[in-house]
Structure formats: C-alpha cells, structure tokens
Amino acid sequence: MEASASNPSLLGQHLYEAHFQYSDSINDQHIRLLDLEFGHDDETISLGIETYKVNDYPPYIALSYTWGDTNDTINLLCNGKTIAVTRNLHEALWQFRENRKRLARLEPYTRSHNQPLHFWIDAICINQGNNKEKSFQVGLMREIYEGADHVFVWLGPADKSSDVAIRCINTIGSKAEDCGFEDGAGLVTKIWHEIEFVSGGYQRVVSANPWYGKAMKSLFDSISGRSSQSNVLPITDLDNFFTRPWWTRIWVLQEVAVSRDTHFICGAQRLSKSRCNAFIHMYAALWKANAAAFRRERANFTKYRLDIMRHLVHQGPNLMLNIPNIYRRNAFQLVALLRATCIGSENLKWHGPHHLEAKRPEDKIFALLGLAADREELKSFGVVPNYDIPYEQTYTTTMVALLQQGHISLLSMCQASRSPNLPSWVPDWSRSVTDMLQTVRSDHMTLYPEFSSSGSHTNRNSIKVLKKDSKIGKQISVKAILFDEIFQVGRFPGRIDSKDVPLSEAYTWPSEWLVEILRLSYCTGKYYKRFHDRLSASARTATGDVAKNSAGESIRSGNTHFDNAVVLLRDGVRFIGNGRFRVETQCFLATQTINTKPKDRVTNELPLAFRIVGASLGRLPFVTKKGHIGLSSDDVRQGDAIAIIEGSQVPFVLRPLDKGRFSLVSEAYVDGIMDGEAAETSKFSYITLR
C-alpha cells in the first residue's frame, strides 16, 4: 500500500516534550525559510528553519495552498521540536518528501535528492501568534512569491475524480496548446469569431487565419458531444477539480500573479500552468459556441451539451490563471480588484464575476494590495496590513481612501448583509456582494453600460468624512437630492428565496416576476399612462435596463426586450387578478400578433428570462409615491427615501434615522431618472450618512 500522510502507523507516535518556539521577531527586512529534510526516517516529517535577510537568501520554493481545518492538526518536527500544522499542509509536505527525486530535478535544484530543499510556507515561516510580525510579513508577501524560483500550488490529495480530470486536462490541454490557447483569454474571443457550432460539427466560418487549420477543427469536433459520441469531457470530474478550495481563496491571486514558474500538484500528479490555461480557454470557447447554438437548437441538445452549459468550469480558473497578465500590465486599481473578487452568487453563478474567500475578513483587502496599481497611493491614506485593529476599522479606512480617490461608485457595494459594526456606507467585503447596477470607475472588467442619474454633476468635493477625536468616525456627509419615497414594495414569488433561486425555476417564474412589476405600476396611477409604456418600463426594470447586442456586448436595453416581454406576459396572465390591470392586459394582448412559431417564441424569450433571473437575485421591485417603478435590495421598506448622490451613476435607497441622518440601504434602478432627469431640475444639498 502506498504511504499516506493520514496513516497513523506512518506518522509516528512519538511524544516530544519540547514545542517549537520562534527565537526572534522579524520585520519586512527578513524572511524565514524551511528546509524539508530528506532523511531515512519514514515516520516523521522534519524541517529546519532559518532567518535570512531580504535579497540575501538561497533559492526556494513558495507554497500556495489552503490551510484547511485549523482544528485538524498533526505534529511534525521543526528544528527538532514539535510544531502543529493542519492536515492539508502535512499532506503536501508528505507528498513533496515522497517525490523528492522529481523535485530535485527542478532547476536550480541540481543537488542530490538527499539534500534539503528550501521552502517558504506562511503557516510556519510567519509567527502566526505575533500580529506585528504578521503585518510586516503580509506587506512583503508579493516580494516573497516574486522572489521564489518556483511556486507549488497544492490542490490537495488525489482521488479517482481528480485523476480523471487531470488526465483529461493533460490530453485535451495538450491539443489546445498546439492550437495556441495558452496565449490568453483574448484568443477565446478571436476563436469565437472563427468557429460556429452547426449541425455538421464545428466549422471555421472565417478563413483569414489558416494557422488554426485542421488541428483546431479536429479538437472541437472531438469534444462537440454530438449524439453519436460518448461524453468526451468528464464534466462532473472537471467541475469537482476546479471547485477545490484553492480556486476560491483570495490570497492565491497574488501568489500566482507574481510567480515566475507555477506547478499545480494534486496528490502525486503534476500539471503545468500553461496546459491548464490552454484547457480552460478552450473550454470557454466551447461553452460560448454551445451557448450560441442553444438559442437555435435547444430541443436537439444532448445531456452532455446541456451539462457543458450548466457547468461553467472555466469561470473561476479563468480569473486565477489570467491574473499574471493583469499584474504585469499594472492594469487594475484596488477598486477594480474588489469588484472582480467580491461579487458573486451562491446559486446562479453565471450572473456574477467570482467571489473569493479569506479566513480573516481583513485579508479581503490585504491580499489585493500587492496587486493594486495604486498600492503606494493607498499606503499614503493609511491602507496597510495591520492585524492589531478590528477588520471593520480596516474596511472603513479603505472605503474612506477609495472615496477620496473619487470612487463614489463603491457605495453600490453597500448592501443589507453586513457586520453591525460597519457604517452603512462601508461595504462588507467579507461577504458575497450581489452584482452591481453601477459600474466601477477604472474597472475594465465590467461589461455593463453606464447610467448617469447625476446628470452632468460630478462628485468633486461632494463627500466629507466626519472625524471624531481626529480619527475617522462612522459618519460621512454627502451632497444629495432626496427625490422620492417608496410607496410599496413588491413580492418575490412565494415559493422562491430571492437569494437562492433553484435552477429548476429559472425557466418558470420570470413571467410571474414581470407581472408583479407591471402590477406595481398601477399602484399610484401616476407617471405611466399607456399600457405600452408600463410594459416597456417593467421590462427595463426587471432586467436593470441591460441587454445584449448581436456582438454579445452589454448595452442599455431601452425597448429591446419589449417583444420578448409580450411573450412572457401571455404566460403570466394567469397570475393577474380581476380588475383594471387584468382588463387592460387582455385588451393589449388581443392587439398583438405573433409571427413566430411556438418553438421560436420559447427560444426568443430566453434572453429576457435569463436576464431577469440574473437581475433579480437578492432584489425586490418597488413603486415610489411619484409612480416610478424600480429595483433594489430585498431589504427595502415602505417609507425609504430615493436619493441621488452627486457624482453617482445610479440612485440610492436611504432609510431615515434620527436628527435628519440616514443609513444607506442599497443602490437602485429607478425607471425615468437614470439619465439625470431629476438632477437637472433639483438642487443638491448635504445630508449625513451613518
């Protein structure tokens, strides 16, 4: 039987009296390195540890991994004394020791395989009980991974599923490398214009690039999943592999971004970063081709092709594997990195970017500082790693710095699910944030078109941070227009949790949702006069006024969704009670002619239905006293104020407090005032948020 780190007979049962103690505290001028000793004792892992000056250390390997359960620990030896490490780290060290001959062949390690290898591993090389040292070392993390000769990514022990996935990635990924897919995500878009999924298989529809040639057509034909083929790609195994905990950890972004040479290790198997990258880009192109074909030939889709649609295997790894390109271009400020790593959904994950996690809330900031193009500027605002203060203070300091940079759009990240110790105007970045209606300035990752509810008004000098005893307090003063008040809040279909929409309901409830928004437009009898205008406004509101053009780019929807809304409304009539609403709906539908076949109508309504699903997660519709319908957080209440903050792209929902102060509830889509209509006729004045 193969040796295992979890086998008690192989771990050793020695009881050591002496526990390891750090002999000194280090700052940002020193690092510690470990020697993994390859002796003859097969029972106990033994490490040596030594302190080195920065820029004066031997070649070393930096480990990128997840700690795992901190309560599940195993003892090993460090300088001859016991130290407890998590089981996942112990498994990694065990595997490295068992494969020492292969590791020794890595340049510059030309030494005998019986000599130690130097490692940097955060759990041991940093005294985790010393917050001051930890703050220094975390600020040095980028340089540590940048200086490593290799970065080993430990994905965990192998199992049957991971073995299948890695074999597939190596086999198909090798062919993808031959086609140039390792070159980056940009190639996916290029290839998307080169191939088309048609009944005869994948075909090149543009012949301007013969470089792709037969190899590419052969690759896509081999994995197309036509009815005559078996399941070429093990979708479930791939999904399991790319959802292992490492892929969701925020620290790994920096660790991979600055690495000179990255190796993925799962059990005893290794996977090159370039091959993994090529496979992921190939899968992204495959998914896009299937998505386009789905609209035309949904009824003919096999289970395999549907599985490809359901499993966005490429989404998480895409961010991880392409972060080095982002870092080398010095492209993104902290505000954009926060957008890319904090927004997501627990359920319908294709509707948000990627939510990455950290065991400590403050690490959601600290882990991104090393990648941020504005790192030095943020340091001047006091945004530096500091584990001696509460994370709420770190978040508040960071938000103040970003607001002073002019990023008022970040107020859209403030949502109901937050720590009670945070001011309402400070996002809780430790939690998954529902995708924002408002784009983030300087965020090149966003695809959403901009609104301009402030009109021509900018946010210059519009925010004042109120301090208490020369320290940042919990209040800010902002210039705003109190435009309206929420009159009634709509209801999410009773059988569905707005934050956890089951996939089985994605095709069934959008018509009910559209009808509920349309109903709200009748509550005050103001603003909308014609049924056509009500339905157009309801379709815009249901989707946050976002649609896709023929090139797949996000645009303002306007009346783009109107025809599809008519189709959904026909299905939703059964949800309408008696009265004026029902009569007007039936009269309107009687005047609408349908020129498409039933099958085509189902296909045509899908873009609107899917867009409704994405826009509605965690949100509820409402109507204001002036008759405007809108969409906001599911925490909104009757009596909340609709405000336009100077310089913001979207309105906000504010809750009145005592002494004329307000708490920020959520951003909002409010039909009819998204392009500065209210801002041009009203005057901004200061209000206080706390």
UniProtKB/TrEMBL annotation:
Residues 60-255 form the Heterokaryon incompatibility domain. This is Heterokaryon incompatibility domain-containing protein. The lineage of its organism: Eukaryota, Fungi, Dikarya, Ascomycota, Pezizomycotina.
